[in-house]
Amino acid sequence: MALSLEKLGTGMAIAAEGVDLNAPLAPEESGALRRALLDNLVLCIRGQSLEPAAYLAAMRGFGRPAAQTRSDSRHPAIAEIMILSSEDRDERGDGKRLVVGAHWHSDDSYKRVPCSLTMLYGVEIPSSGGDTQFTNMYAAYEDLPAATQARIADLRVVHKYDSPRKGTRIATLRPEEAAELPDAVHPLVRTHPETGRKALYMNPNRMAGVVGWERAESDALLDALIAHATEERYQYRHRWRRGDIVIWDNRCTMHKANADYPEGERRLMHRIIVEGTVPV
Description:
alpha+beta, globular
């Protein structure tokens, strides 16, 4: 079967079928997938059955895999793969259930050099629920009034792993891991290094505040922009199938996980992230 592409959402997301990532892709296939991701922000490659080593090898075609922050969540054989499971607990904290990514966010924004892409492989999928939602940060920026665009053009925001504004519980890090994550400062409006387009660059769970602004003023602006960027008109909701590999661009999207699957059913994902560049 030849590679085929089909749009998933009205404003973003596309599905690819007809490729088996256990074998090297032809150059034209690899190029088509890369273009589909850049043009649609979210790419789902359907129907895969991959061992961890094959998964990692296939994802190298999109960039250089980056190290995962939490060593406790790493795959025992392949450190570049993070295991996300419905059975996750905050083992170094209170031991309670942990739903990683339950609040809108952009992966790794708390790092000075955040990852560019995230890949998530659906190894085990519940019978219902467990969707991942995405929002288009290009469109959210472009729809802002010109006066607002001008007001925020040069603003910079402090991002940190444990932000006072966080909306959900986060995993407790090892002390040495936390020590390697000093606060990061990023532009509120980011220019994509490959497309040249501008997007809001936000992470509600990691942003602490606008540099140089009082907390109340900063919170009011960030809250208003978050509410705008997460309006339903900008969203795509991915309903998982087993064997899906969903790849998204953190430089122009936010996403969130939903833990609304039936009690007792397992959701197991393998995550890989790709190195990025300093946001500008």
